[in-house]
Amino acid sequence: MIIDIHGHYTTEPKALHDFRAAQLAGLEDRARAPSSTDLGISDDELVASVQPQLRFQRERGSDLTIFSPRASGMGHHVGNEAIGREWCRVSNDLIGRICTLLPDNFAAVGQLPQFTGAPIENCIPELERIVRELGFVGVNLNPDPSGGYWKAPPLTDRYWYPIYEKLVELEVPAMIHVTASCNPAVHFTGAHYINGDTTAFMQLLQGDLFRDFPELKFVIPHGGGAVPFHWGRYRGIAQDMKKPLLAEHLLKNVFFDTCVYHLPGIELMAKVVPVDNILFASEMLGAVKGIDPETGHYFDDTKRYVDQLQHLGEAERHKIFEGNARRVYPRLDALLKKRGRVRTEVA
Amino acid sequence: MIIDIHGHYTTEPKALHDFRAAQLAGLEDRARAPSSTDLGISDDELVASVQPQLRFQRERGSDLTIFSPRASGMGHHVGNEAIGREWCRVSNDLIGRICTLLPDNFAAVGQLPQFTGAPIENCIPELERIVRELGFVGVNLNPDPSGGYWKAPPLTDRYWYPIYEKLVELEVPAMIHVTASCNPAVHFTGAHYINGDTTAFMQLLQGDLFRDFPELKFVIPHGGGAVPFHWGRYRGIAQDMKKPLLAEHLLKNVFFDTCVYHLPGIELMAKVVPVDNILFASEMLGAVKGIDPETGHYFDDTKRYVDQLQHLGEAERHKIFEGNARRVYPRLDALLKKRGRVRTEVA
Q: Which three-class secondary structure state does DSSP give residue A180?
């Protein structure tokens, strides 16, 4: 089976956007605040809204997408903490409903009500709710809730430890994913997302976080930002800092997805990053919407690139498409097993 | 001949560091401010200080390094504008002296006295001084003088236009290079430098700067940050934004260096970036100091990687090693011609 570990709900019904607009308008004029968190979106509307994703699954040949709210929509820098918490619940609830309605196509990953300056502990109730009550298999963790100004302490700081303890306890990985940028110098999908990945990796390289949390698992999206391209630089900096080899220091805990939108990029990644650390993903209906004039295929049809990696054996390709995802997301594996989808092993 | 377009003076005599320390101490206690900008460094000391660079030139087989002050030392976010201007002059003067003492080995690139919130016009006198009086062939331009908080407007903003007009008038390119990070979340060589490159490229992609400045030339160092690895993403975002193809939109004006510290990275770069846009560089005595245990060679011995690019013909390799540098840095070309080093053409 083919698991796409990185999809966002970017085809939300208008009612969700209207709710958010009312929420923010309500900060200025209470009369405009939404009167209820019931958006009045029916199950049929939800199913209709994800038809583009389902069509791409069929056309491109993937089976299941790990599905989370629109990343740029998380907006941790917007409004205040209370508004953010409400927005987070509403956004996660929609994801939960979609994954319940279409359990063969989607597994749920949530967002957290992070807010600059607020203790990370404040996110634990929502994390427990989505995992224990709604059956989510992972969560997105934003290393920069200030939206492009990098005001949070690095991921290795003890500020973050309470959420890591909970992640380990619940056996869910975190995808390190920023939200929109409110910094006019930093474009969201073209700079902030990629910089977020690179910065997070470097924070982890500098620290020794996984000595304290050997079971913690992070997925760094967008192919790890700049990291595989500069793999020699990172190996060299780690060596200059007297850190262990990256395999030992980070790669038991840090994984990369394949959201890199051209074959040469994926080829490089598969050359330098161990196959056990690569998880198939497309970020579909995400950052790039068009068709590559050089290939005639969608830029974000990343399965084609993985299929073209000549040097991979079937067992390795299976790891990228399924095995690694079931290992990194044990709650997904459990869900699938319960439905009779035993984890296949390719020799 | 082999031109390395990206080297920093990271082996400065102690007197320079002492001067800077006194300058900054003087902000707190005027009695500690340096009494003179004459550092008392002799020519012999200067020549002795760059022996490590000269040894690497000999051992690795490069001829001339385009040499600029230590990038992390520029420190545009430190102190105040007046202190920064003095520091900038002192730093540039040392580079100028080294390049006069060893004209066959070094050509000079300067730093600018940028300061957050100060008009960029304030940098023009120093730019004119180093180019017209000291014979510098280029300059480093910092897109984030706030040192990791990205408080400056994007490079496409009219804020920057006065310096662009002067760069065009003087026929000198700018290397887009950040300085140290004062943001604890963002490591300098492992995150801020690479993010700076990626962010600058994306700013240029979003705008139409080169319509206003068709002669302006930017070098983006460190292989362009994450850009070649995500070449498909950038081509796709440009297309979604209805921009022309990158070749038309940016590549007449934007160039990348080869400071990527492993062969697979350089291979990727040479696969996606046109050969006319790649300039050989090592950033030597820079970010990574060690020997790669996988190859037994220094990580930053980037000439080895370029030499190993199988698919390049001699004419293409010559462009990367010499031709492109002489085209992008016309004042370097003029200097070399004056010394009888005619630009060789490889058919």
A: coil
Query: Nearest-CA residue of chain B relative to A302?
Result: B232
Which of B182, B203, B233 is the best substitution to test chain A (most A C-beta atoms within 10 A)? B233
d(CA A255, CA B319): 38
pLDDT of residue B346: 61
Question: Which of B143, B150, B198 is opposite residue A183, by nearest beta carbon?
Answer: B150
CB contact burial B6-30 (16+ within 10 A = b; e otherwise): bbbbbebbeebeebbeebbebeeee
Cα separation, A110 vs A189, in Å, equals 19
Measured between beta carbons, the chain B residues lying within 8 angstroms of A271 are 264
State the sign of the Cα–Cα–Cα–Cα dihedral B230, B236, B238, B243: positive
pLDDT tier for residue B286 given thresholds of 50, 70 and 90: confident
Digit-coded pLDDT (tens) for B59-71: 999 999 999 999 9
Nearest-angstrom CA–CA distance, A289 and B177: 31
**Distance to chain B for A347, nearest Cα, Å:** 28
Checking DSSP bridges between strand A138-141 and strand B254-257, what pairing results, if any?
unpaired
In the structure encoding, which two tokens stand for residue B192, read together? 């801020």
pTM for the model:
0.97
Q: What's the distance, Cα to Cα, between the start and end of chain B in Å?
A: 15
Buried b (16+ CB within 10 A) or exposed e, B267-298: bbbbbbbebbbbbbbbbbbbbbeeebeeeeeb
Question: Beta strand A138-141 with A174-176: parallel, antiparallel or unpaired?
Answer: parallel
Coil vs helix vs strand at B304: helix
pLDDT reported for residue A336: 97
| Token pair in block for residue B147 | 């040192």
Nearest residue to B304 (alpha-carbon basis) of B61, B22, B24: B61
Closest CA to B75 of B150, B13, B20, B10: B20
Give dist(CA A294, CA B60) in Å, integer: 38
Euclidean distance between CA atoms A180 and A137, whole angstroms: 23
Q: Note the pLDDT of residue A285.
A: 87
Nearest CB to B223; choose among A144, A154, A229: A229
> In chain A, which residue's Cα lies nearest the Cα of B156?
A185
Could you give the ipTM of this predicted complex? 0.97
Q: Which tens digit of pLDDT belongs to each residue from A114-146?
A: 999 999 999 999 999 999 999 999 999 999 999
| Residue A10: strand, helix, or coil | coil
Supply B46's token pair: 């200067």
Active-site option among A283, A294, A316, A322: A283
> Residue B285: which pLDDT band, with cuts at 50, 70 and 90?
confident
Is B128 designated active site? no
**Alpha-carbon distance A66 to B28, whole Å?**
55
